[in-house]
Write a structure and sequence with these properties.
This protein has 7 helices and no strands. It is mostly helical and 141 residues long. Helix 1 crosses helix 7, helix 2 crosses helix 3 and helix 2 crosses helix 6. The chain binds protoporphyrin IX containing ZN (ZNH). Protoporphyrin IX containing ZN binds next to helix 3, helix 5, helix 6 and helix 7. Belongs to the globin family.
């Protein structure tokens, strides 16, 4: 699991973002499909133009899942089991794409919160996102 210090840093940034988590998650999605076009294949049914309603709606869902994950760091696989099923069995998202999304989210947050983005915050967020990706990418049951 994350260290208490890592968890505290992530929680502090989450509080600061408040209702903007979905805005930044959407920005990360806009970035992933532009910077890494190979990931577009997963999102084929969605309108991927910047600012699209579908992308924003999807960003909000991903943000909500990340917030749930933050509240369940001790039982992530359980808390995310339905989503893990979706990502492994149905969507078959490859591990690299999870890393790329994490990268895009880190970059987005660093741009919006430069003053908060110490190396320790970088590490804490990276660990958090790695844990979530791991829980989502491991088949359950
Ligand atoms: Zn994912 C979906 C989350 C990653 C792709 N997702 C989804 C959802 C959610 C999520 C919540 C919704 C579900 C329902 O509706 O039920 N994801 C998530 C998270 C993460 C992710 C948290 C991490 C961090 N994804 C991912 C990646 C990819 C994806 C990496 C690729 C690249 N997803 C996806 C898709 C979908 C999803 C494609 C479906 C969409 C639609 O709508 O169709």
């Amino acid at each position: 699991a994350l260290s208490a210090g890592d968890e505290a840093l992530v929680r502090a940034l989450w509080r600061k973002m408040g209702s903007n988590v979905g805005v930044y998650t959407t920005e990360a999605l806009e970035r992933i499909v532009l910077a890494f076009p190979s990931t577009r294949i997963y999102f084929a049914p969605l309108d991927l133009s910047p600012g699209s309603m579908q992308l924003r709606a999807h960003g909000k869902k991903v943000a909500a899942a990340l917030s749930v994950a933050l509240g369940h760091l001790d039982d992530l696989p359980d808390a995310l089991s339905a989503l893990s099923d979706l990502h492994t069995r149905q969507l078959r998202v490859d591990p690299t794409s999870f890393q790329l999304l994490g990268h895009c989210l880190l970059l987005t947050l660093a741009r919006h919160y430069p003053g908060d983005f110490s190396p320790a915050m970088h590490r804490a967020l990276h660990r958090f996102l790695t844990h979530v990706a791991w829980a989502l990418a491991s088949p359950c049951g």
